[in-house]
Amino acid sequence: MSQENWTDDGERLIWDHWRRHADAAPDAEAIVHVSLDGPTRRWKWGELMRSASQISRRLRDGGVRRGEVCAVIIRHHPSFYPVYLGICGAGALPAVLAYPSARLHPEKFREGLHGMSQRSGLDHILTEHDLTDTLLPLVGGDGSTIRDLLYPLDWLESGGTDGGIDDHPPAAPSDPCLLQHSSGTTGLQKPVVLSHAAVLRHLRRYARAIRLRDDDRIVSWLPLYHDMGLIAAFYLALVQRVPLVQLSPIEWVSFPALLLRQISAERGTLCWLPNFALSLMADRVRDDDLEGVRLDSLRMLINCSEPVRAESQEKFHHRFGRIGLRREALAACYAMAETTFAVTQTAPGREPAVLTVDRGQLAKGNVVAPADPASARVCVSSGTTIEGCKVRIVDEQRGDLPPDRLGEIAIASASMFDGYRNYPEKTAQVLADGWYYSGDLGFIHDGQCFVLGRKKDVIIVAGNNVYPEDVEDAVGKVAGVVPGRVVAFAADDSANGTESIAVIAETAIDETPARKALRTAILTAAMAIDVTVSRLYLVPPRWMIKSSSGKPARAANRSRVTDEMARG
Asked: What is the pLDDT of residue 496?
């Protein structure tokens, strides 16, 4: 769909777009499902929509009603896509949830899902037979809203996709069309319901911001329970009719070169990634995994982290520039579930702006050039606001701050959510007078938005603000620390009436002398940025709890290490 032919799609339903694509180009590729364990499955629009309609009919026949929530807990599977689309076709709200890992105890998973069911109002769970024993206690359980377990993969295996493409049940553009959860650990995720109009309006405007083209091809390993994967990759591709090449997140983690190989093989042009993915690939992809791989087809590799880290961007380009990755392909975006996805975006074909500021002055809220190179912090722009979005920087009283002053980022968006589902107290904390108060810290410089991190994560030491990202960056560079597996957080220092800095770092080093040397190196690295680490916890690889966006979660890991220390 060329940019010249775009119309205002805010008054239509998402299903209408999918049906139009199937009618206009039934043999065009919609989704390319890539798996290391099986053949590549290339879904064409006609068969995808016929299969989705089969799912819709089975759901309606099974008692699923318009507006009910269908949680989808299915592993990377070629039939996931018609299942998801089929839920939409039935007029229900799909909500993708993470499939439990082998390291997560079933009871812990049930506890998180039970809490989520009460907040999100989950009505049905569409899943696999392997999870029956884990999930069945939640069906009709005390306080649970979950009514049944459904196994849609069985329905598609039985065939019968000759029934044509169904109409969507009567609905208004303002009606809800999906439920996604804001980033966080399972128990803390907040349910965000979005309407057809909000999603379509946003996708149209975001497509303009990145200058989406007819020949674009999205390649993604991102999980669809996170807005970066669900909206930027999945919905953008399916609504604007550009092919999506979808990889398994689990397979990508085990073999990071898979993404680069698929970008090369499929001539991918667009990809969204967080900081940790850029650093992980730069560190772990071997030269022999890159034989024949070229990245010159990529026109935008968009980093959606808060903050975007200059080191991650530079490391990735340094590692893969020799196989065709252009520096100007590196881009950045500020996005969240509450605004459907993007708030700001850097311009295509232009690197994000970089600003070096004084760390000490930044701790006081001032954005100025560093007086001493030792106090420098490099900040990367997340771009300018996309059409339909406005950004303010506000102080503690939510009054406006001028450019080059650090404060909380407040957002007004044409694709804003109406509030967290069944969570009025959280909604009241963040929504007021048409503005969403994000809890993110940032500033505006030369019209560009710079995001520094979460307000609640700032550590206040003797009246000075310390940003955990600075500490994590410094500690993460120490030899022996697992890259990207560091969290810094505030620890109570009641004796001095302030907070102190605690750090958890993963390491494979287990010999006592080497661990002592590592501890010294970590403390020294922190002191180099004028920070004193009062508590240091060295933990084994893969110990940390991750958020839904794949980053180590500070609050969850703080609780875990505190609990383990209490147990001795």
From this structure: 56
Q: From edge to edge, which strands make up the β-sheet containing 330-335?
A: 41-44, 29-33, 244-246, 218-220, 270-273, 300-303, 330-335, 342-345, 384-385
DSSP 515-553: HHHHHHHHHHHHHTTT--EEEEEEE-TT-S-B-TTSSBP
Is residue 9's pLDDT more than 80? no
Q: Cα(192)–Cα(477) distance, rounded to whole angstroms?
A: 36
**Cα separations (Å) of 347 from 4, 212, 322, 430, 539?**
19, 12, 23, 29, 41
CA distance 325 to 179: 35
Query: What is the C-alpha to C-alpha distance for residues 294 and 278, in angstroms, rounded to an integer?
Result: 16
What is the C-alpha to C-alpha distance for residues 258 and 364, in angstroms, rounded to an integer?
44
- Domain ranges in the chain with CATH number 3.40.50.12780: 3-254, 267-456
Structural fold of domain 3-254: Rossmann fold (3.40.50)
Supply the DSSP string of 33-45, one letter for each residue.
E--TTS--EEEEH
CATH H-level superfamily of 267-456: ANL, N-terminal domain (3.40.50.12780)
Tens digits of residue pLDDT in 146-184: 999 999 999 987 665 567 899 999 999 999 999 998 865
pLDDT digits (tens, 9 = 90+) for 183-242: 654 445 789 999 999 999 999 999 999 999 999 999 999 999 999 999 999 999 999 999
Rounded CA gap, 149 and 130, in Å?
12
Helix H or strand E segment including 23:
helix 14-24
The verdict on domain 458-567 having CATH code 3.30.300.30 is yes
Model pLDDT for residues 280-336, shown as the tens digit of each residue: 999 999 999 999 999 999 999 999 988 899 999 999 999 999 999 999 999 999 999
Per-residue pLDDT of 32-77, as tens digits, reads 999 998 899 999 999 999 999 999 999 999 999 999 999 999 999 9
Give bridge partners of residue 149 from the DSSP assignment: 125
Q: How many CB atoms lie within 10 A of CB 328?
A: 13
- What is the reported pLDDT for 549? 61
74, 79, 231 from 116: Cα distances, Å: 17, 25, 21
CATH 3.30.300.30 intervals, the chain? 458-567
The whole-angstrom separation of Cα 453 and Cα 468 is: 8
